[in-house]
Amino acid sequence: MPLVPSRPSKDTPAAAPKQRSRKGKKAWRKNIDLNDIETGLENSRADERLGGGKLHERANEALFQIDTGGDDKGMVVDAVITFNDTS
């Protein structure tokens, strides 16, 4: 008499599903860390928003200006000191 494979009973656990392959493009995209790349891109985007381009490529004269004229009014502290001296 030939041996017939037995059917699984209710007490035996079912076989676990096979694990999918990790060689495909989905797995590559899923298992990589993009934090450092995203941080670098966000920093370069912020530079472009602030100055219209990358700050390290611009000349110092385009980024800064020297104020040689000064204010016409004078400082508030000077007005307070003269007011206190006269009273």
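^ that was protein a. below is b, sequence first then the tokens
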Amino acid sequence: MEAAFTDLGARRVTANTMAVNTGSRRVMEKAGLRFVRSYTGDWPEAIPGSEHGEVEYALTAPGPAPHPAPDPAPAGPDLAPQG
């Protein structure tokens, strides 16, 4: 996880698995990810257990989020250079 935040500059790491896949869920938790939500997907080929839905886990980088860049001023006729 540290490499995702330091080397790659990620702000958030997410992982998904089937709700019934307790082994994968435990690995995500041991890696520091926390449960975010349950959801259902419309998969073209359902596999056993998919009727119970999916789960999403996530981990956000420590520290404050970077400030977004300000929007550039809109160009218009009153902002055109004079000369």
